[in-house]
Amino acid sequence: MKTLSFTLRGFKKAGEMLQSSLGELEREIMEAVWQRGETSVREIHGIFGEKRAAYTTLMTTLDRLHKKGLLERRKDGRAFLYSPRISREEFTRSIAKDVINALLGKPDGETKPVLACIVDAVGERDSKMLDVLEELLREKRRELNSEK
User: Fold this and answer.
1) CA distance 37 to 58
2) For the segment 45-61, what is each residue's pLDDT rounded down to a tens digit?
3) Which CATH class is domain 15-84?
4) HEC letters along 113-131
């Protein structure tokens, strides 16, 4: 089943939603923290340099990411050391789950077209992904049956 791709006025495509969930600098900092593990503002500033962002801007952005629940921090002398609270994969999965839940949060009759679009999109990308999807469905059914 072929579908048209368009964006309704006032809505973003899912890919744009993933990109806009964090600002550009926040995304770049999260990538640096995911790569480094635990890091300080000074280390991030060393990576970015003064031309990219001022030290205080990086300090504020790291604090904001901490307040958003994406980074852990601990005091080390007078400075904070930041580490990821969630992995890159967990972050991506969380956003994808929110998008899917929004799509599926419709009356029963409206969810079938959404599911059909998901299957179509997976099939158009790579037919092997359909096998992966099928296996994931089997695993989920086993999991649900074992909980009963």
Assistant:
1) 17
2) 999 887 889 999 999 99
3) mainly alpha
4) HHHHHHHHHHHHHCHHHHH
